[in-house]
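2024-03-11 09:14:02 DEBUG pipeline.ingest accepted 1 chain
2024-03-11 09:14:02 DEBUG pipeline.ingest length=237
2024-03-11 09:14:03 DEBUG pipeline.predict start
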Amino acid sequence: MAFAGRPVETDVTPGAWLADALHPSPGRVGSLVPPTFPAFARVFHPAVRYAEDDDIDVTWAEVAAANGRTAHAAMQWASITGSWEYHGEDDQPGLWNDAPADGHLPAPVAARLAAVLARHTTTPDDCWFGVWSGFGFITADAPTLALPGREHWLVRGHIELAAANMADEPHEQSASLWWPADRAWCVATDIDLASTFVGGSVACIADVLAADGLETAAVTADCPVGRDTDRINPPPE
């Protein structure tokens, strides 16, 4: 079995450092990427608006403003839209038609993020990518890397694999984890969240926060990550 043309690794010990470093209690940034990094960023997955034959990315800040809510680093989708139903099939016509993807970093966003992170590793051609083993449309007969609450198959390759589809068509699925061999940073896209989190050096995260084409916010390792953790905008009924 191969993901994005790369064979699934049979030796998962190169990921053992993650299992040792992650905070064992779920629900915080440090349980997704190691809290030992000096700085952290949240990357918001964009919503999408249909415009004839084009799909236009819509930022969370745009959605918050249109709904009279406040954009901030810990905002949550249901709180800025006003309904839990907006995690499902409903939309806000004229504003957005597809909600941000849960557990999947869209390929264009992943490519932009990878281009930034490539400048902050000595091993951009040697990176590790984790694929959650619980997706029903992805299978492999190989050992998994056990992390708190999640198990992942691993593949190895150039940083550009961050934007590759790890599933077979017609499914589309990004890597759930990726990090370079020199462990300069780590990226996590949890299956239940519509955001991706990055841990790295202060300079690395500053670069991510300043990057064009990414909606980001600075966070800390202790920041909560659940859907109901917005403490500024009113929760939906």
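2024-03-11 09:14:41 DEBUG pipeline.report The CA atoms of residues 117 and 152 lie 22 Å apart.
2024-03-11 09:14:41 DEBUG pipeline.predict end
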